[in-house]
């Protein structure tokens, strides 16, 4: 369903519109919805859930993390860069980050006093 929503988005929005919506998502963490954006709330929710599930299942679990434990160690200031990486499918960014977090959790340095 997420793939269908993404395909429809690509087919019905110009590159400029896609970039505007991507930039809004990167900045705010929410996919703009409504008639003005041509995106239904349910579609946005499906896509966001699919990205989260992909991240957890295909990246974080390999490092012994889940989304919650990963986010415990991510600075909120890094969220826009991570959202951009997710939107571009740059999962290697998350692998490196998750590996560092997992190592810090294992040696205890991730839980500073």
> Major beta sheet, specifics?
none
* Number of helical stretches of at least 4 residues: 6
Unreliable stretches: none
Average pLDDT, rounded to a whole number, is 90
Structural class based on helices, strands and sheet pairing: mainly alpha
Terminal Cα separation, in Å?
Answer: 44 Å
Secondary-structure element series = HHHHHH
Tally of strands: 0
**Beta-strand percent range:** under 5%
Structural topology:
Layout: H1 2-12, H2 15-28, H3 41-58, H4 67-71, H5 79-88, H6 91-107
Helix pairs in contact: 1-3, 2-5
Question: Can you walk me through this structure?
Answer:
With 113 residues, this protein is mostly helical. The protein has 6 helices and no strands. Helix 1 (2-12) packs across helix 3 (41-58). The mean pLDDT is 90.
